[in-house]
Amino acid sequence: MPDLIVRGVDEAVVRALKVRAGGRGRSAEAEHREILAAALVGPRRLSFAEVLAAMPDVGDDVDFARVQSGRVTPDVFD
CA 11 to CA 78: how far, in whole Å? Predict the structure, then answer.
């Protein structure tokens, strides 16, 4: 497995990495590997269209009708 050396990292970042690693019960090096893997080869984010398409088809159109002044607006879906 190749090695990766990162130089010039701000001390505050190194401290935060060590704190995060300790909180998860692993070394800073293991935490660094996990962060890199999640950022670069983690699961692909869905597009907005894919999220909308994945929503279940629930309710009726009238459930989403706009109510103004105590009356329901005409159903524009018919």
Answer: 63
